[in-house]
Structures are given as structure tokens and as C-alpha cells.
Amino acid sequence: MATTTFERAPAVPTRPRKLYQQLYVQVLVAIAAGILLGHFWPEQGAALKPLGDAFIKLVKMIIAPVIFLTVSTGIAGMSDTHKVGRVAGKAMIYFLVFSTLALIVGLVIGNVVQPGAGLHISPASLDAKAVQAYATKAHDASIVGFLQNIIPDTIVGAFASGDILQVLFFSVLFGLSLSMVGERGKPVLDFLQALSAPIFKLVALLMKAAPIGAFGAMAFTIGRYGIGSVANLAMLVATFYLTAAIFILVVLGAVCRYNGFSVLALIRYIKEEILLVIGTSSSEAALPSLMEKLEAAGCKRSVVGLVVPTGYSFNLDGTNIYMTLAALFIAQAMDIDLPLGDQILLLLVAMLSSKGAAGITGAGFITLAATLSVIPAVPVAGMALILGIDRFMSECRAVTNFIGNAVATIVVARWEGELDHDQLRAALNGTLPEDVSEIAAASPAE
User: Fold this and answer.
1) What domains are there in the chain, each with its CATH number?
2) Is this prediction's pTM over 0.70?
């Protein structure tokens, strides 16, 4: 069907922003200030939790309309609706392969470094009640229940709850329906494309509050848990961060190089969003902005709209690394020898449990509980060992997941022939206009 396209205005040279006007600098300063406040005045720092929570709520408020507009207009503008299934299929293959690689990397490095060796902790000394709530949620999480939950009870309910996969499910169906009605759907498509401009501008306005949210969230984390809690289990934290870095730079780096771009250049391009994820410990906080930037970097709207939201539930590289590494740490700390058979079982169970608990708040800790509950050799109560430092590892989980989904989107777009290589090169070289939201809003649906 015919679609309305918006002519992209030529890039107008703009005066470079001063350093203090850059969002990533503001977020970085806010994170540092939050750490200092939480460390020296812990009570006041812990009391600032509402600032971080309020910012995340602001962003979640806009996620549903961003996904709906991006996906529905992208699919409706496709000349070949079979592309929807093809893009989704390629994305799921990518997710399966690299999620499994992440689990294997965590397992290998956990065996090589052995971060829990030498602690000699008795299982009887652990507080099982501390992790009881997580174990209960893990028991309730199942793959069948997860798949059933993708279908919303009502259309309004999907948007009201803000469930990413429910909104995505409806958006795909609506986009397909809109493309099938032909010219009669053109006024609706025109309206949705016009509505994209103010919605993306709203995202840009909300991002101005990012430093406040990052400051409050980081002050709470340090004030509530203290830097000392990291030092007590520093080996596990350091091993996890090292493993995540190896996965990003080596595994994802090789994928990026094979597909014609640099992972380091991509990280520089989305540095503001990465810092926001670090500050809030939530990859959802940067989801709308990531979708804008990937579209501005040359990925077609239809690919961005399908791959990014789906990846937030199915492509959790950081969470997968964390699960195998943390499980091995708990076993090593309690002097439990896990034979190769049990480690393979751990890997297989983690592949399933990571999908079954996707989308649940605190998914990393919950999926670990779900995994350990199937491995009788390692008591679930052992999770109490890492409960105090889990918050400090959640930032790394979120950042790894975030970068992994950015890479996945560009790779799938290239596989599908829906990537503008010149535009990607300009984005990664920093030669795009600064106002990315205007580029994304003005992009044609196809």
C-alpha cells in the first residue's frame, strides 16, 4: 500500500554543545554525586529512592506508545508482510544462539576463576527466609504461563499494564491489519506517523530528567547497601564485570566486526543511554531512546520495532552470564563439587528459566532461583550469599543486556537488507545532527 513519507531535512551544521550541556556528562556527574551522598550520608541517600523510581515511571509511561507507533507504522508500511515473520524468525535465532553463548561464557570463566573457592560457608548458616520471596516468584514463573501472558486480556489492558510483550503483540497484529486494508487504512497510517513526532519529542523532554533519576537511584543504592557490601564479595563482582566485558568486547565485538561496524563505536554512540542504565539499574529506562537512536543510525523502523522490545525479554546476555556465574559461585563457596553432568543440566535449565521469568521485576535474581530449584546439589538458600550485592551486579546485567540488544538490532537489520550503511557509519562517526529524535520521527515507515 502507498505510504506517506516525510522528507528528511538536510543536516544543518549546529554549534557544538558545551561539555556541561551534554546529557552523558550530566548523568555521569549525577552518578558520582549520588555515590558520594550515599556513602557519607547514607540515611539521606536511601531517602532519595523516590527520585529514581519517579524517573523510571516517567519513562515506562512512554514506552507503550513508542512501541505501538514504531511497530504498527513500520509493519503497515512494509510492501511485503511476510517480512514480519522473517525478521522475527531471524531475531529469535540470533537471540537463542547468543543467549546460549552467554551462558557458556559464564560457565567457563566461573570454572577457571572460581570466585567462590576458599570461603567454606556452611549451608546451615544461611538465612533461607531472605530469599523465600524470590524462590516463590521463581516457582510461579513457567514458560507456558509466560507465553499465555503475552496475550493481553484487553487492548486497553496491555497499555495500562505497560507489559512490553503484550503491547508488542497487539502492535504487530494492528500493523498487519492496517497493511491489509489497503488505501482505506491510509488516513490512519498518516495520523500515526504524524503522532510519532510529538511522542518522540516527549521522549527527548523526559530524558532531560535523567540526571535527577540517576542521582536518586545511585544515592539510594549506596546509602542502602553501602560500598562495604561490595568489598565483602569483591571477587564475584569483579569476575562478573570481567566476564561481561569479555563477552561484549570479544564475542559481540567479533559479531560487529563481521557485520561491518565496531562495537566500541556503537558503545560511544549510545553512551548516554548506557550511563542512564548504570544510574537507574534498569535497561527499560533507556528503551525509547535506544529505539530512536537505532532508527536514526539507519535501521528500518519495522526492524527496530520488532527486535528491540522482543530482545528485552528473549535476549538477556547479561542475565545469562550472571546466572551460571552466580550458581557456580554459590556451589564453590559452600564447597559443593558440581560434576560436568550437573553443570550441563544447569546450562540447559538456565536456557529455559531465563525465558520463563523474562519481564518479571528482579528477573535476574528470580531466574537464578528458578535455575537452582532444579539443581538439587545447590540449595536455593545459597542465594542469601549474594543478596546484598545483587543490586551492584544488576547494573552490569542491565548494561550487557542493553548493548546486546543494540548489536542484535543492527545485525538483524543488515541480514534483512534493511540497514542504511552510510547512515550507520555517520552515526557511529558522530556526524549525525544532534537532535536524533527529529530524525527518528521524520523517518519513513519503510
Assistant:
1) 19-442 (1.10.3860.10)
2) yes
